[in-house]
Write a structure and sequence with these properties.
mainly alpha, TPR_rpt, Anaphase-promoting complex subunit 7, TPR-like_helical_dom_sf, TPR repeat
């Protein structure tokens, strides 16, 4: 047993720090005396040394050392061709014991991927002949191709993964996300479904994800619910998270939160999907719960985007946009495919007046999740903020035609129509259609109430809001009902509605403003100074706002550190 064998055994035993020190010393010896080790031994040392560096997360250094190993392998190949083998069996055994050149190339690609050098990673993996590509190489290639927008190549690679591993479910999701028909994907798994017992659910699973990626949320929900009710798959966390996400996409916040909470109870260490859950909780005004959730996820792992997004949502809904921007950028650094991180950063940029930068982030979110309507809503809000009504109308019409006439698409189109006096009647018709489909859809109720307020149809607005609140309790709806009641001089109930709104979201500034305005009207002697809406908004939390400029400057500095300017 020689020294190289000892190094190999230490590597196999996971003694990476020991391998790094010993291999470094041996390589120095080899450089000073080239005759000390054979070409194959030096190749092995370089690979073991690179593996140890990779384990220490020094990826640029590791990639360099792996490339040196590949150069050494070329020298080894040349010498083995030049010198005929005198001991055929021994030479063959030595060749088989050498680290795989294919595995070394995979490791280089892995380093490049972590370093965000996707083009270099693709170039390395493309250099491996198709017949020599293992399933994990094809899977990495497929993900890289999809990220680069090379959809045809991505489909080919995903299919190759399924050909070798027909139960590779993430590859199946990849194919469905690239618009490959569910029936075609299912046909690639049919043999294994029929040959292995208790896999009859897989066809329905594929169908559910085909509906998700086709934007058919209603049928996706029904299919996942039927799967989740099966005794063998009941309480599966992945299914519950998927169901929660589809409820979210369908605009059903109540059921989405319910399913996320159910999944969280089953798996307290759950990270996947918690960014969406945190966003919903923040949007509903439960900022204390969001803060606790973010802290808990940071304790589980700070190397995932989700806890950063959750903390960013807390900052965003606390109106600390610079901090939200920094946290969103940090999340994107950890996972450039995080749709929720892109939406968070886009929303922060929009609210800070940096609309063109926000548009870039919303477009990237749309590319990654073409069936998520909140990506389009963010972009439309940017267009409206910059008076681009024509662009907003074009986008809204495109969504309506592509995803069909459902409550969400009708409401999005109506929202744009409300911005133009010429299309007010069309907006009313669209909102009526949306509410006919889903009377409890909050966004449609809010927009219809806004329209009725403009038309001063206060009694009709009160009836609409009371009807919507019969089966749900929502801060915005209670606050709007309070506004309508003030308009008809029903001050006592208006005060009650503002109080309910603030109990649901203590940070709702508009409800607080409504109460303060009523109190001033009731006791004019106390109101020595009349404040407009902007002044009142700034008077809500004096302590926080005193430090807001310095805090914004602090986070702006960190934005520059992370290259966000």
């Amino acid at each position: 047993m020689n020294v190289i064998d000892h190094v190999r055994d230490m590597a196999a035993a996971g003694l990476h720090s020991n391998v790094r020190i010993m291999s470094s010393l041996l390589l120095t010896m080899s450089n000073n005396n080239p005759e000390l080790f054979s070409p194959s031994q030096k190749y092995q040392l370089l690979v073991y040394h690179a593996d140890a560096i990779f384990h220490d997360k020094e990826y640029r250094n590791a990639a360099c050392k792996y490339n040196m190993a590949l150069q050494q392998k070329k020298v080894l190949s040349k010498t083995s061709k030049v010198r005929p083998s005198t001991g055929g069996t021994a030479s063959s055994m030595q060749s088989q014991s050498l680290p795989s050149e294919i595995e070394v190339k995979y490791k280089i690609a892995e380093c490049y991927t972590i370093l965000k050098l996707d083009k270099d990673a693709i170039a390395v993996l493309d250099g491996i002949p198709s017949r020599q590509r293992t399933p994990k190489i094809n899977m990495m290639l497929a993900n890289l191709y999809r990220k680069a927008g090379q959809e045809r190549s991505a489909v080919t690679s995903y299919k190759e993964v399924l050909r070798q591993c027909p139960l590779a479910l993430d590859a199946i999701i990849g194919l469905l996300s690239l618009s490959v028909k569910g029936a075609e994907v299912a046909s690639m798994t049919m043999d294994v479904i029929q040959s292995i017992p208790n896999l009859d659910w897989l066809s329905a699973w594929i169908k559910a994800y085909a509906f998700i990626h086709a934007g058919d949320n209603h049928r996706a929900i029904n299919t996942i619910c039927s799967l989740e009710k099966k005794s063998l798959l009941r309480d599966n966390v992945d299914l519950l998270v998927s169901l929660a996400d589809v409820y979210f996409r369908a605009g059903d916040t109540k059921n989405s939160i319910l399913k996320f909470e159910q999944a969280q109870m089953l798996d307290p260490y759950l990270i996947k999907g918690m960014d969406v859950y945190g966003y919903l909780m923040a949007r509903e005004g439960h900022l204390e719960d969001v803060e606790v959730l973010g802290g808990r996820l940071f304790n589980i792992s700070d190397q995932h985007a989700e806890p950063w997004v959750i903390s960013g949502c807390h900052s965003f809904y606390s109106k600390r946009y610079s901090r939200a921007l920094y946290l969103g950028a940090k999340a994107i650094q950890l996972n450039s495919n995080s749709v929720q991180a892109l939406l968070l950063k886009g929303a922060a940029l929009r609210n800070m007046g940096r609309v063109q930068e926000a548009i870039i982030h919303f477009r990237e979110a749309m590319r990654l999740a073409p069936c998520r309507l909140d990506c389009y809503e963010g972009l439309i809000d940017c267009y409206l903020a910059s008076n681009g009504i024509r662009e907003a109308m074009g986008m809204a019409n495109n969504i309506y035609k592509t995803l069909g006439a459902n409550a969400q698409t009708l409401t999005i189109l109506a929202t744009v129509c409300l911005e133009d006096p010429v299309t007010q009647e069309k907006a009313k018709t669209l909102l009526d259609k949306a509410l006919a489909q889903r009377p409890d859809y909050t966004k449609a109720v809010v927009k219809k109430a806004e329209l009725l307020s403009r038309e001063q149809k206060y009694e009709e607005g009160i009836a609409l809001l009371r009807n919507a609140l019969a089966n749900q309790s929502d801060c915005v709806l209670h606050r709007m009902l309070g506004d309508f009641l003030v308009a008809v001089n029903d001050y006592q109930e208006a005060m009650d509605q503002y109080s309910i709104a603030l109990s649901l979201d203590p940070n709702d500034q508009k409800s607080l403003e409504g109460m303060q305005k009523m109190e001033k009207e009731e006791s004019p002697a106390d109101a020595t100074v009349e404040l407009d809406g902007d002044d009142m908004e700034g008077s809500g939390e004096d302590g926080d706002l005193e430090g807001s400029d310095s805090e914004a400057a602090q986070w702006a500095d960190q934005e520059q550190w992370f290259g966000m300017q």
